[in-house]
Amino acid sequence: MTIAPGSRLGAYEVLSALGAGGMGEVYRARDTKLNRDVALKILPDAFALDADRLARFSREAQVLASLNHPHIAQIHGYEQAGAVHALVMELVEGPTLADRIARGALPIDDALSIGRQVAVALEAAHEQGIIHRDLKPANIKVREDGTVKVLDFGLAKVLDRSETSDVRDGRGVSGPAGVTASPTLTSPALMTGVGMILGTAAYMSPEQAKGRIADKRSDVWAFGCVLFEMLTGARAFDGEDVADTLAAVLMRDPNWTAIPKELPPPVRGLLEKCLIRDRHKRVGDLSVVRFVLDTPMSLATSGSAATVEVKRQRTWQRALPWAIATLAVASLAASLLIWSPWRRVPVPEPVRLTADVGADVGLLVSGPPGGNIALSPDGKLLVFAAQKASGSQLYIRRFDQLQATPLAGTDEGRYPFFKPDGQWIGFFAQNKLKKIAVTGGAAVTLCDVPNGRGGTWSDDGTIVFSPSGSVGVTLMRVGETGGNAQALLKIADGEVSQRWPQILPGGKEVLFTSASNPANYDEASVVVVRLADQKRVVIQRGGFFGRYLASGHVVYIHGATLFAVPFDRERLIVTGQPVPVLEGVTSSAGTGGAQFAAATNGTVVYLAGGASGTDAPIVWMDRDGKTTPLRTTASDWSNPRFSPDGTRLAIDVSGGGGQPGVWVYDWARDALSRITFGSALDVKPAWTPDGGRITFTSTRSNTGLGNLYWQRADGTGDAQRLTESMNNQVGGSWHPNGKVFAFYETRPSTGNDLMMLTIEGSEEAGWKPAKPSVFLSTPYNEQAPVFSPDGRWLAYVSNETGTPEIYVRPYPESSGKWQVSTGGGIYPVWSRARREILFATTDQHMMAASYSVSGDSFQADKPRLWTPTQYMGRPRLQSYDLHPDGNRLAVAPLPATAEGRQDKLIFVFNFHDELRRLAPVAH
Fold first, then answer.
1. How many whole angstroms separate alpha carbon 249 and alpha carbon 197?
2. Any residues with CB less than 8 A from the CB of 82 and at least 6 apart, and which?
3. Residues 390, 612: contact at Cβ < 8 Å?
4. Could you give the dihedral angle defined by the CA atoms of residues 253, 258, 260 and 265, in that order, rounded to the nearest 10 degrees?
5. Which partner for 612 in 130, 588, 605, 684 could form a disulfide, CB atoms 3.0-4.6 Å apart?
6. Whole-number pLDDT of residue 805
7. Which value, to the nearest 10 degrees, does the dihedral of the CA atoms of residues 568, 570, 571, 575 take?
8. Dihedral, CA atoms, 175, 180, 182, 186, nearest 10 degrees?
9. What's the rounded Cα separation, in Å, for the pair 415 and 398?
10. 121: nearest Cα among 64, 168, 40, 188
11. pLDDT above 70 coverage of the chain, percent
12. Phi, psi of 230, rounded to the nearest 5 degrees
């Protein structure tokens, strides 16, 4: 929150802005009661709305209030006015230590004086169970008189004295540890390098860089980094970016030759002991640091250099001969280890860091889950699909910038992928395959794509993509300048889908996910095909979303865990056994997609969360958002449809990873009965007006595509086929006369068209389905048709504006059209109790629009929220239905532990080295 000078917050008048810290913006203010200047640290608006960050901010006030020390900036109070939360802190004048170091190395006397005061401040904090976790020169102020003040304990946590402080291996495996959790990358204000470090990478201890628990020895490490920098004018650990800097922290030693030769040997030995990576061998307490610095500080101010050196030697020889010996031996041992040519270079461990996406949006998680994040090949750019109220949009994040920025012209964009040179991004939007430059500009349409499932870009300019989520679809290819797409491969025997492709380096092979069971991609296979001769090799059975990495491995998902297997590209063979490498990767066995991306430099990124939740109970939700149980047993259900009399609910249910079938739930008896059987996929039930039959879409035909069938609602008799088509068909609703069924069909030339199926005959004489006829065919995609209760109107979804919206047309004539939704809408439902149309938004909120009819004219009112409560999306098509009473919905509730928007990703650096360690590559 930006506050203008002259504004008031309680008794404090804002004078000017001072800067931004890790947890808020800082202002100079005047305490009008005590007539003194103070520093106001104010939480930004975005943070104030985040309960976790607000709790951390409140904790900072409590932590600082417990510290009262001459070398620690004091807190005076905590102010809250509406949405504004602020700490009132001591205003410390003077430059930061970072400002001093920017002019060059400090004289030894000054460096040791400042170092001793910092050590005393940290020691006092540690005695109260508080560690800093973010010590660095920018958090140290030096007054003109030489007094030091340590600032910003905002990242500190209070140690629990009732628990042990021994964490043994740094992972906390010995039980609850009285130490703080490692920092995560969530603060936009403390960014360095890739721009996402909470705390600064150059001063982060090895245990923090590895994502392990931090304790007071982590502060000792940071103190050593600060002391080294004061003495040399250069950072102990530095690099071109965060990955390089953290690699230095984990692998490389400081440039010890830069240490001034005049530095007392005990201090040099102390410094070396502060920067030992194994914290069990590191100096364990700041009291040791202070003790060592006391004597050199008292002697460095008098006498000649020679006299001072003699005095130092005599004093230490008398007082601490054991200290000299110990530190000298440690220094010698460290030097030998640094120099020794026989020493085997250790494999760097991966660095895991959690990062905000860098924008006031969340990641796209609604709709078909898939690869909605992508890294540029060099690992310097992140592009992601963001969730918005009316759909989605692509955002790009440059790692040298604080914020992600939206890419104009990418509305409804999803499943982005980079060109190999990193200058262009391909994506799917509005039933098109498009591209856009990373610098922005106009998005260019390359070809029509009904419902894409992943793309990849070759060095020669070829783009390979999966054009649809329907079964029986092969991978396609198109040039980067656009044109007519052509089939790349053939569908193999037993294969129903090819998706999430990746062209391997060189452009001679393509890796993709091959499914034989479109309802469970945990049963899919990761396949590679050599394009020259169409040679097909199955790399892994029982996995999906395969990706080849430059480490020489193929990674894939199974059960929300990322596995890796060594792979020889030349021979197209696996050379080792799969091993699990990352757990809890957000993924979907229902679509074969995963929120995971990799760069060629060994950086990977993923969204934590595990398999997309599919099992859920069913609840009633009323207009006030209140929920009551409908079916308490959780299952993987979708497409609920109430019977005409409102006593039963038809749903499609997938059990045990098998194909979904149609079931009927009678809640009065708490009885769920299956009415369709077999190995086919049966989904999207729709009751006939008399409640006697249920129509559904099924893959029972030999083509593996969805055609229309119906079955008696009591489950007796066999299912009867209503349509025969080589196009995929999805059911909609019955006209009240029971003779006409509305559905949509995906046709190669026009996309999704609205169709009508007329039924002749009777139950006694036999039913005679007629050939379906086209009701509406446009250049756009129409779907989800549903008749009004009186049969005069047909509501449906169309993307003709670029965003899915709800429209109404008269029936049986299709002339005339009225738009109902105004900010996006999907899956319309007519109320049978009042003149009202309900529809959903892409972020799972229900909207409603009242309507009126005058002659042949239809008029819809402005849509409004039907209920303020959000519901949980389902994995297959529609997620709700309205009961005939018009007052309650059947929906899945959001889990009680569900968080708000998902705006944090996990970055893993040095991932290739980790793979080579876990799954060695054959040579």
1. 14
2. none
3. no
4. 20
5. 588
6. 92
7. -10
8. 130
9. 18
10. 64
11. 81
12. -65, -40
Give the CATH fold of the 97-300 domain: Transferase(Phosphotransferase); domain 1 (1.10.510)
Write down the domain spans for the chain.
Answer: 8-90, 97-300, 357-612, 615-892
Contact 695, 734 (CB under 8 A): yes
Q: Which two tokens stand for residue 26?
A: 């800082």
Closest by CA to 614, choosing from 588, 595, 633, is: 588
SS3 352: strand
Percent of the chain clearing pLDDT 90 (strictly above): 43
CB atoms under 10 Å from CB of 570, counted, come to 5
| Number of CB atoms found within 10 A of residue 728's CB | 25
Same fold, 357-612 and 615-892: yes
Q: Mean pLDDT, the chain, as a whole number?
A: 81
3-state helix, strand, coil in the chain (%, to 5): 15, 35, 45
Give me the catalytic one of 134, 241, 881, 903. Answer: 134
Residue listed under structure tokens 């091959």: 514
Is beta strand 587-588 parallel, antiparallel or unpaired with respect to 593-594?
A: antiparallel
CA 294/CA 297 separation, integer angstroms: 5
**Six token digits for residue 61:** 């006030």
- Which residues have a Cβ under 8 Å from the Cβ of 191 and sit 6 or more positions away? 197, 402
Which amino acid is located at 16 in the chain? Answer: S
Q: Which of the two residues, 490 and 466, has the higher pLDDT score? A: 466
> Any idea which residue has 């943070």 for tokens?
47
852: left (phi over 0), alpha (psi -120 to 50) or beta: beta
Structure tokens at 97: 């230590």
DSSP 167: -
Residue 816 DSSP SS3: coil
The gap between the terminal CA atoms of the chain, to the nearest Å, is 57
Angle at the Cα of 562 (from 560 to 567), degrees rounded to 5? 145
CB atoms within 10 A of CB 260: 12
Q: Which CATH class is domain 8-90?
A: alpha beta
Q: Hey, what CATH topology would domain 357-612 get?
A: Neuraminidase (2.120.10)
- Residue 55, helix vs strand vs coil: helix
What would the CATH number be for the domain defined by 615-892? 2.120.10.30
Q: Which tens digits make up the pLDDT trace of 65-100?
A: 777 888 988 888 878 777 777 888 888 888 899 999
Characterise 732 by phi-psi region: left (phi > 0), alpha (psi -120 to 50), beta (else).
alpha
Cα separation of 453 and 503, whole Å? 15
**52 Cβ neighbours under 8 A, 6+ residues apart:** none
Q: What is the DSSP letter of 177?
A: B
> Which tens digits make up the pLDDT trace of 311-369?
333 333 333 333 333 344 344 344 434 344 444 445 556 667 777 777 777 787 655 56
In the structure, how many helices (H) and strands (E) does the chain have? 12, 62
Handedness of CA 171, 177, 180, 185 (dihedral sign): positive
Is residue 215 annotated as a catalytic residue, yes or no? no
Residue type, 51: A
Phi and psi at 909, nearest 5°, equal -100, 160
User: Taking the CA of residue 824 as centre, how many other CA atoms within 13 Å lie in the half-sphere pointing to its CB?
Assistant: 16
Please list the residues that pair with 214 across neighbouring strands. Answer: 180
3-state DSSP assignment of residue 112: helix
Query: CA–CA separation, 256 vs 331, rounded Å?
Result: 11
Report d(CA 246, CA 907) in Å as an integer. 13
How many other C-beta atoms are found inside a 10 Å radius of the C-beta of residue 427?
Answer: 26
**Tokens 């008749």 sit at which residue?**
787
Give me the residue label for tokens 């703080």: 180
pTM of the model: 0.54
Reported confidence tier of residue 170, pLDDT bands at 50, 70, 90:
very low
Rounded to a whole number of angstroms, the CA Rg of the chain reads: 33
